[in-house]
Amino acid sequence: MSLKIAYCIPSLYSVSGMEKTLTIKANYFAEQLGYKVYIILTDGNNRPEAFPLSSKIEVINLDINYDKIWNYPLYKKIPAYSLKQLIFRQRLSEVLRRISPDITVSMLRREINFLNKIKDGSKKIGELHFNKTNYRDFNNPRTLNMPFRKSLSKIWMYQLVRKLRRLDRFVVLSHEDMQKWHELSNISVIYNPIENFPEKVSDCRSKKVISAGRFVNQKGFDMLIRSWKIVAGKHPDWTLTIYGSGDKSWFREEATRLGIGGSCYFEEAVSDLNDKFAESSIFAFSSRFEGFGMVITEAMSCGIPPVAFACPCGPKDIITDGRDGLLVEPEDVKILANKICLLIEDDTLRMEMGRNARERAERFRIEKIAEEWNSLFQNLLS
After folding, report:
1. Which strand (E) or helix (H) includes residue 330?
2. What domains, with CATH codes, occur in the chain?
3. Would you say the pTM of this structure is higher than 0.70?
């Protein structure tokens, strides 16, 4: 049975996990399973996609352009946003009725506010690429103790849960996160996929530790370089390289201040991290929180063991502690350093964990993840 699937996402030009994951799945569905795939956008008209998209996929831009109002003063922003929501609902309704998809998937952005009310005949699925606690960064220490923010967050979550209950299915990225959605019974877990399982594998002999991600607070690179000061003191012949987009000036200055500038490097994001993983021996993961942590599975597929903070959510679903990687209590810089040192100092353990990591990564192949999605779609339509 050939399916018609419509995805709703703000844009495709951002180099981030949600856009990457959607592109991987949509390409596979269109090219390998013969789905007719539509991706419906609100922003980014005429901007190129961040990741290569199959020519078989039809992109529809509704030209809402929410990004144009963010610099408005509040008294203008609120009515402007409300008007754009009305236009969005009208245009999305028209498109869904015209293309008549079997399944409509919301990436839980602005369309979740009204998607259930659109009567186009399609089954409605919500797909969350954050964990529940950090979906709107409710645990941000700068706002957590603000009574107004806390009250607003509770109201917003209550309203969101009501909308999620009405979906035909709600999909999250980890079993850890699923346990937090105790209010819902229509919930499933489907992991993020690895697009290309690499042939080139690390032998875990180089004296290189690698990390990757955007240079933002979430990724915890400030903690990683403090940890590296401990590692470098014991193993000055090893290096740490962090690849990612964003402003690196503070991190370079901090590394210099800590006296590790000669062994700690900050590089721009690269199109193919697999080559960099294959040149390394350990992957360090320092995030404060995640939706899943796909970069862990990608590193493991190249045969390098991860040392990771067991942050919410993802690492505990991915890593079997002591077998294919090492988990560390969140934000414990000293223990992170100790676990990295453990793998540096034990060649046999490092190489064995590298082999086990690659074996574990097989679970996240796109072929397996796509079959789980296909089964979900077919069950909803049967």
Report:
1. none
2. 4-193+365-381 (3.40.50.2000), 208-364 (3.40.50.2000)
3. yes
